[in-house]
Structure formats: C-alpha cells, structure tokens
Design goal:
It comes from Tepidibacter thalassicus DSM 15285. By secondary structure, the protein is an alpha/beta fold. The protein is built from 16 helices and 13 strands. Helix 15 crosses helix 16.
Length: 340
C-alpha cells in the first residue's frame, strides 16, 4: 500500500488531496450528525463554496443524507468511511506513527486516530469508534468485561449501536464509585455496554475514599462479594487513563495528600492507584474493585485515552503492562515522542 501511495503522489497528487478532503468531510458528518454546511465549514476550516460542492458530490453518490435539520451519513457512507480508514491512515502517516509508538513504549498494540482531544472534543468520539471496532474482533461468548468510568469511556459506550449480540456476556464496573456525573460513572457505563451487547451487567454502588473498616464490612455483603469475584475474573478490561492531578481534584483529595503525591512525581491514575512516570505506585486510595495484581494478569487489556495532556500518564501505564493495547490520538502520540 505504501508504494502505491508514493506512486499516486507523484503521478496524480490531486486525487489523494480530494480523497482526503472527502474522507474528512464524511468523518465530520458521521461524528456530528445532523450538521449544517456552515458548521461543517467552520470545523474543517474550508470555504462554504468548497463544502457546497463536495456535499453535492457526496449526496449524488448516496454517501450522505441531507435534511432540513442537517446532514447525516448514509449506510453506504459508513461503509466507505470504514474501508477507507486504513488507506487514509497510511497516507497521513498514522500507520507509521502507530508502529513507532508501539516499539518505543514496548507494548502489544497501538491504535491512533487523527487529531488531539485537548483541542477537539470530537476526537474522543473517534477513539470510541476505534475501540468499538477493535472490541468486535476479540469479544467471545461467555466473556466477562470490566470497564471503568470517564468521558472517553462514555464515548465508547455510546458508539456501540448496531454491534452484534453475544451469548452470556457479563459487564462489570472495574471499581466502585459514586458521584454527581452519573453518565460517566463506571456503573452507568457497565449498564449501557451490557444492554448494547445483549448481555447482563452488575453494579458496584460503593463510594471512593472509604475507611478501611467500612471497606472490610462492605466486602462481606453477598451481592458486592459476588461482583468482586466477577471483577477478579474478567476476560477483557477496557479502561480510561487519567492524569494524577485531574483525578485527585475530581475525587476531592485533601490538599495535604494532593501536595504529597505531586511531590512524589505522580503523573497518572488508574483503579485508585497513582503512578510516577516509571510506573511506580506513589499512592493508593482505599477503594473496592480491581487490584493491580489482577490488572497485570488480564489477557485483553485496552487503555483508551486522548489528548497531549495525558502523555505522561500513558507512559506510566505502559511501564506496568507490556501486553497493553493502547487506543489514543495523534496529540498524545506526538507528545510522548517529545517526552522520550
């Protein structure tokens, strides 16, 4: 494929330019449907004249639908978008970036989507879609799936429409947690994913930062104890990766504790553990759910994260789990190369 792209660039470079432009238009429509021409023009920084012309072409090819409420992608458009991705990624150098980052981090697999989630929120939707596509390749009947919370995990759950149904699938939250942002809590995400996969789900209504005595008491509760058994035996773990400072603030960590973990070089957080850039634990919160020894032994472990601000957190997690599958964006990937 690489040789073909190089030849096309020399002989008919304008074709690749047009293909990339139409691919990006289809992608933005897919991510933001229904969307109007002016909004599309602003997002892609293309003139309305170009957008008008390309929309007419895409409509004539039955790749998009145009309504008074805006444009949406058709079934044919979705098919084209999915099948063009590998070619476009190669053309844009993303395939090379994936392979380079995989080798640099020394992990099992890297999937990168274009853009930077810190600058464009729709990139998280792309990470969610890439996760859905990967998950459909590895899921099997009778699997137990563990999930965490977070904005990117929420986007992944939303992307599961139309996925094939599996037999005897169980989805569990990888850790407890209650909070105001119900939509992005692991319990809600587990429920959404369980329903969309045609399986079952368990909930874990346990707050973060509880006392050791309360923790020991809760573990004895039959329903919680049974859910914890499932968590310890997950076949696939899909989790978000957070910055240490962001997660500490979200969980309302006391200032003295916050200052302590920052002084110890905490850069990333996952499952209630705070890590420095070398993947060493600098702090552990009292919580119910997956433990680090479980995390290290899970065969299919997928970390999904976007944005250049998360680069150090990704570095920390990649030191802990060498068979990690990382799904991220260009912003994070390029920042990691800068750091190392």
């Amino acid at each position: 494929m690489k040789k073909l792209i190089q030849i096309q660039k020399k002989i008919i470079p304008e074709i690749l330019e047009i293909m990339e432009r139409r691919y990006l238009i289809l992608k933005q429509i897919s991510l933001n449907e229904p969307i109007g021409r002016r909004a599309l023009s602003n997002k892609l920084e293309l003139s309305e004249r170009i957008i008008r012309s390309e929309v007419e072409f895409l409509k004539s090819q039955d790749l998009i639908n145009v309504h008074t409420s805006g444009m949406s992608i058709s079934k044919s458009g979705t098919y084209v978008l999915d099948n063009l991705k590998e070619f476009i990624d190669e053309m844009m150098g993303i395939s090379h970036l994936e392979e380079s980052l995989k080798k640099k981090l020394g992990i099992k697999k890297v999937i990168i989507v274009p853009g930077n989630a810190d600058e464009d929120d729709t990139v998280r939707k792309d990470i969610g879609k890439a996760t859905c596509k990967y998950i459909t390749k590895i899921l099997k009947n009778n699997y137990i799936i563990g999930v965490t919370g977070g904005n990117t995990m929420h986007e992944f759950a939303n992307c599961l429409q139309g996925i094939k149904k599996y037999e005897n699938i169980l989805v569990v939250p990888a850790r407890g947690g209650l909070g105001k942002e119900v939509e992005i809590q692991s319990n809600n995400i587990a429920a959404v994913i369980g329903k969309k996969l045609g399986g079952n789900y368990k909930l874990l209504h346990v707050p973060d930062n509880i006392t050791k005595e309360t923790l020991e008491s809760l573990i004895l509760e039959p329903e919680i104890n049974k859910t914890l058994e499932y968590i310890q035996n997950v076949d696939v773990l899909i989790f978000g990766i957070g910055r240490a400072d962001d997660m500490a603030r979200r969980r309302k960590m006391p200032k003295s504790e916050f200052d302590y973990i920052m002084s110890k070089g905490a850069v990333g957080e996952a499952f209630g553990y705070y890590f420095n850039r070398n993947g060493e634990i600098v702090h552990e919160t009292i919580t119910i759910g997956i433990k680090l020894e479980n995390f290290k032994s899970i065969k299919n472990t997928i970390g999904i994260v976007g944005g250049s601000r998360k680069a150090e957190a990704i570095l920390a997690i990649s030191k802990i789990k060498k068979d990690l599958i990382l799904i991220t964006d260009e912003g994070a990937a390029n920042k990691i190369f800068e750091l190392i």
